[in-house]
Amino acid sequence: MSALIHNGVAQKSSFATDADARRYQFRSLVIVCLIFCGFGAVAVKMVSGWVLVAIVVLLLPRWMIYTHELFHLRGGKQIDFVTRMMPLPFTPGALGYAEFRQIHFHHHQHPATPEDPDAFHLLGGPWYALWGALTLPEQSIIRWASQNGWRASLNFDFLCRASIFGACLGIGGVTFLWLWVPLRLVYALGDFSFFYLLHVRHGVPGTYSLQIFPVLRVLAELIYGRTLVRATMFHDRHHLCPQIRARSLPLLSE
Known about the structure:
The chain is mainly alpha-helical. It has one domain (2-251). Helix content is 65%, strand content 2%. It contains 15 helices and 2 strands. The chain has helices at residues 2-6, 9-12, 18-43, 49-71, 81-85, 97-109, 126-134, 136-148, 150-153, 156-172, 177-194, 196-199, 214-224, 226-233, 235-240; strands at 200-201, 204-205. A two-stranded antiparallel sheet has the order 1-2. A hairpin with a 2-residue loop joins strand 1 and strand 2 (204-205). The chain starts with a helix and ends in a 14-residue tail after the last helix. The model is unreliable at 1-10 (pLDDT under 50).
């Protein structure tokens, strides 16, 4: 691994750059815009709710991985307001970019251990981890506030997210379920796949890779992109070298 980091131009080209950060940030903004536009179109009955479901299923996993990659490249004050706020209406009370970034760094320091702040949706068996993934937005804010205080947690960004959730619910009414249900389910499935499946193998906590059939890999990369698929398949390498861009992880030596 040290040879990869210190030897040669090809190895240096595997490191994530400012251009990568700008690309992740721009793409995440586009996805947020498309999801809200899709919701608006459903709310005014321009399109079927299933169109919005398809948008969320196809784009939310990309938004999740772009946000994850940004964690390793940009602090909360180095990104735009929308990206920092994380406005997608998962729950009335939710954390934002800066808080999730800090949690993620602690996860990297203590992966798959009782000290891991993500232990509640990672350890304890598959059903416990699945429940943690399904309730992650609520559990995250409760756990964060219990450690940092509710006064510090209820900041301006928090109030903006709560207002967006309320506005979507008020505007959409029952139609809001076409957005909220797929958001929660896709997010939970993505979280379960990225945490439990990559950090517990045969009941043993750790950090692992995930091998899939070549045909499925090609198909997944066509649908969800190389960044998501390779960050998942080579997750153990990501933990060893988080400064390497996800799509370059296959280039790392074993």
